[in-house]
Specification:
single chain; 524 residues; six-stranded mixed sheet; 25 strands; Metallo-depent_PP-like; Alkaline phosphatase D family protein
């Protein structure tokens, strides 16, 4: 089914006519964005979100359907007793009517409730209905902390299928009531059109909810925006967003598959300038998520999120500063072997040194030792870090430097979390089994896809001595399985407040615990 959601069309529809049209298409109001009671009132089109939550605040986000002011009330009780009203924020066409606000001076370790409305800029007495969201600020003491992570949403043409429960993994994650969600990238597939139907191998048909802008690859700013908004049409995603704050990073599919400066765009693209596409994609990405913005470098993705005494999260950007994808075989560090780049390297080292948290989670949008080819069909070039067994080369030189620094500083209790490869795995890195050995043992955990095709397993590079302690993948003879096959994965992390122990569990969309391990923190 195709749903057209542009503002001019919505403004011409009465509520009664819209609801009757939606019902005829088999779509209930629960599966659509929130609607106001009167056609002339602003609408909150895609729910609310919160993100980048710390001990004293967090960012809230919403989108209107017209030029408006976002009005936010914040309280520590669900009744909104003694709520604080905050100054309005403009939502204008230049930002696609999105608005976000940093809520500050909040108590630590507290459930926070926020209520969002939009006031029409042309008619100041006309306001939307309110939508309520919630989050919990990071603790100031050593209480339990829980979060989920994963990546890869609406990939390979697997969109919102109401017959399969929509983006069901988000509903499963929500049941755990996590403190936050670490999105490891590929938040959208800008390069992946969503067709109305996909024929499955068993002759069944996967039926997508579709919108006009997702019928082709994204090239314009509005098309990149539409790819994000498409995911927000899913009722599971909107319900999750209203209750679980997001710590988001990006990878390649926010722009196009395996993009770098050397990207040769396929024929589907009329716009041939990869840097222009990346700039439009970056703007849409920042508009659509509740991220804290950098004054030093507007548009920066990498950042530290301090989440109480037990946890700091270091969100990396492995896309914006990389050298061109290529053979990845350099034996000396230079621009062609950049992956996170020198400035981000300096930031990461200093941020790790500054951390006083028990656990330092390094959020990497790509795995360290799984080989991801730039040209998968011919097994050529490197899209990720690894390129094959042997000493550290190319982009591995950065990882070697980071691991050496962590050992010599010394910095305790680092864990790497990632997604990207569309299957679940646990890797233990042992210097005694590595080609490069100047590091302390550590873990890397891989999850996803959250709602995309399932692939894998990938080849493993022995440079840093990874051991596969767990893997759940379809096998090379069963690639691109649909979400309905059940092989959708997310990771769940619990840190016990009293002991500081970290338990990592890999789960599927049915919430089956596939594998788990508990890590004891090193002291000192």
């Amino acid at each position: 089914m195709t749903i057209h959601l542009s503002r001019p069309q919505l403004s011409r529809l009465s509520r009664r006519r819209f609801l009757s049209t939606a019902a005829a298409a088999g779509v209930t109001t629960l599966s659509m964005p929130y609607l106001s009671r009167a056609a002339d009132r602003p609408q909150i089109t895609h729910g609310v979100q919160s993100g980048d939550v710390s001990m004293d605040g967090g960012v809230v986000w919403a989108r209107a359907d017209r030029p408006s002011q976002m009005l936010v009330e914040v309280a520590t009780t669900e009744s909104f007793k003694n709520a604080r009203s905050l100054p309005p924020i403009a939502a204008l066409p230049e930002s696609d009517f999105t608005a976000k606000m940093l809520l500050e001076n909040l108590p630590s370790g507290q459930d926070i409730f926020y209520r969002v409305k939009f006031r029409d800029l042309s008619h100041s007495a006309v306001e939307s209905e309110a939508v309520v969201g919630r989050f919990r600020t990071a603790p100031g003491n050593k209480r339990d902390v829980s979060f989920v992570w994963g990546g890869d949403v609406a990939g390979q043409g697997w969109g919102i299928n109401p017959d399969d429960g929509g983006m069901f993994t988000f509903a499963t994650m929500k049941k755990h009531r996590p403190d936050f969600f670490l999105h490891s990238g590929d938040t959208i597939y800008a390069d992946g059109p969503i067709k109305s139907e996909v024929k499955l191998p068993d002759n069944k048909v996967w039926k997508n909810l579709t919108v006009e802008e997702k019928a082709k690859v994204a090239e314009t700013l509005d098309e990149f925006r539409a790819a994000h908004k498409y995911n927000f049409l899913d009722e599971n995603v909107r319900a999750f967003n209203a209750e679980v704050p997001i710590f988001v990073q990006w990878d390649d599919h926010e722009v196009t598959n395996n993009w770098s400066a050397s990207k040769e765009l396929p024929a589907a693209y009329k716009e041939r300038n990869i840097q222009l596409l990346a700039a439009r994609a970056a703007r849409a990405f920042h508009e659509m998520y509740p991220m804290r913005e950098s004054i030093a470098e507007p548009g920066r993705v990498y950042r530290t999120i301090n989440y109480g005494p037990h946890l700091d999260v270091f969100v990396l950007d492995e896309r914006s500063y990389r050298g061109a994808n290529g053979p990845n075989l350099e034996d000396k560090y230079g621009p062609s072997s950049y992956f996170i780049g020198p400035e981000q390297m300096r930031w990461l080292k200093q941020a790790l040194l500054n951390s006083r948290a028990t656990w330092k989670v390094i959020a990497s949008d790509m795995p360290l030792s799984l080989i991801v080819y730039d040209d998968a069909a011919n097994k050529k070039g490197s899209e990720a870090i690894a390129q094959g067994d042997g000493p550290a080369r190319g982009r591995e030189l950065e990882i070697a430097e980071i691991l050496r620094f962590i050992k010599t500083a010394p910095i305790q209790n680092t864990v790497w979390l990632t997604a990207d490869v569309h299957y679940a795995a646990a890797h233990y890195y042992d210097p005694n089994k590595a080609q490069f050995q100047d590091f302390e043992p550590f873990w890397e955990f891989v999850s996803g896809p959250l709602h995309a095709g399932t692939f894998g397993p990938n080849e493993l590079d022995n440079t840093f001595g990874p051991e596969v302690r767990f893997i759940k993948a379809p096998g090379l003879d069963k690639q691109n399985l649909p979400p309905s096959a059940g092989m959708q994965f997310f990771g769940h992390v619990k840190i016990e407040g009293e002991t500081g122990q970290m338990t990592v569990t890999l789960r599927d969309r049915a919430d089956v615990a596939l594998w788990s391990t508990t890590l004891d923190p090193k002291l000192g």
